[in-house]
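Project standup — Tuesday

K.O.: blocked on the structure for the chain from last sprint. Re-posting the sequence here as requested.
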Amino acid sequence: GTVVSVPPSEKKWKVGDRVGGPWHGGHDHNCRACGRGLFQMCSNKAINGVTRNGGYGQYATLRTEAAVRVPKDAEPADVAPLLCAGVTVFNGIRNMGIMAGDIVAVQGLGGLGHLAIQYARKMGYRTVALSRGTEKKDFAMKLGANDYIDIKANDVGEELQKLGGAACIVVTAPNPDVISPLLNGLGPQGKLLVHTAIGPVPVNTVPMVLNALSVCGWPSGHAQDSEDAIAFAQTHGVKCMIEKFPLEKAQEAMEHMLAGKPRFRAVLTMD
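H.V.: unblocked you, prediction finished:
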């Protein structure tokens, strides 16, 4: 949206600037995480839509340190999903310390997954899509995947090892049963990056110890991370598939989302 009002003390933003309100809604600047620049991990973080209101309205208040600058030539509806799903997978992958040319596998082809495939491929990784059945293979390849593995018909660990072993496997679908088998597909010092809060899962520690594997997560990103995710998407043509709903149909959009029907993000628009 467009900034319509700022307090007299505001120095960063002015009326007319285009901004976005991401998942991260603010931080205290004082805790250990903030001191390290990990603002989205702040001990007293604010979260837009959770601890702060305003997502389903024509106007909202944003904290200056958490507002995201949005290019004026960008389509707002296309940018909106990048402020949550986009920055989450973009920021997670780029913080794994993996080298260009390494294998990055993406489990799940939903909202997070279809963006993760695009980001990973454009970052220079050999990208492998993992999903159940063959129905999504063509879609995955169009997104930019180099390879596709049907995890229903194949042993996903064995298939990934045939390719050389993954440096990183990005878990985007909330299925706890896939975590342990996916570990078998990692190469030495490989990382299993979990982007879904799926609760306790059983993990075989033997391959973890023998091959220095790790299971980790990454929580979204702060304002600069979101701006980086948007800039990267604009430069490299990463685009989220969306379905638009006018604001007056917000309830319909919510029901559509809860039923798992959007491909892949429902976006409320305001004229």
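K.O.: great, moving the ticket to review. The longest strand covers residues 186-194. The mean pLDDT is 96.
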